[in-house]
Protein: Putative chloride peroxidase
Organism: Deinococcus deserti
Amino acid sequence: MKNWTMMALAMVVSVGTVQAGGAEAGRQEGMLDVNGARIHYVSQGAGTPMLLLHGYPLSGELFARNRDALAAAGFRVITIDHRGYGQSTAPASNPGNLQTYAADALAVMDQLNVPKAIVGGMSMGGPIAFEMWRTAPERFSGLILINTIANPAGIVEQNIWKGMAQKASTFGPQSLAPELLKDMLTGQTRATRPADVAFLTTIVKQASVAADVAGATVLATRPDSIPTLKTITVPTLILEGREDTVYPPEYSLKMQQNIPGSALVIIPGAAHAAIYEKAAAANQAILTWARTNNLR
């Protein structure tokens, strides 16, 4: 077992604790010095740790509608902003790659005294979770795969991500919002819930150009994780939006068929950001799965 504590720069540079009643009880928020970057995190609740990893080019606030419900049900929900996204920053020498994102997440667990957790990865967070599993499977008590994929990117998808990187470099992070929001949310949601569009747009705009390029490169060059699926031995939940056009349900079905004993829940009326768009349904699916597998 690798000593991840020694790999991390084990100094908390700032931590804010909110002492409040209700769902906000036990909330901590701060910045951690991790592998040369400053990683923003939120930890809410007490109980079984659950680390949630956001997708491209978002932040931990993607899970804003999940933290309260899951914390109230007995979980310690931890969300992070990958380096260069949200409030996190990264050195110019290492804006991010798959191995670094995985090492950052494991180092955050170290600094927050979390020996093992249910690890959930949305979209790009899925390949990061797979890399964490290949590196340190003993850190997992469960796995949640959210609108993600185990296959490597094909030629068409590779060029889509290269185009995203080029657009961010030329026109700035805000230019990616129109490209991505049409796939993040269903047409119905975009038409009737403009606040949801504005919220996700704001998150997209927070990323740095370097992070947008690094994340797009990770997605374009991600390894084939299909062989990894058969090695997963912890309880696994696969969540999918029925209207996801980025990684459609067929990919989730393939993952379910390759992970022994895994469960697949397809959420109607949801697209790529199902965890946010249909948060109540996603929360219920997670809680039912966790109860079934004695994870809390």
Remarks:
- Residues 20 and 26 are 7 Å apart (CA to CA).
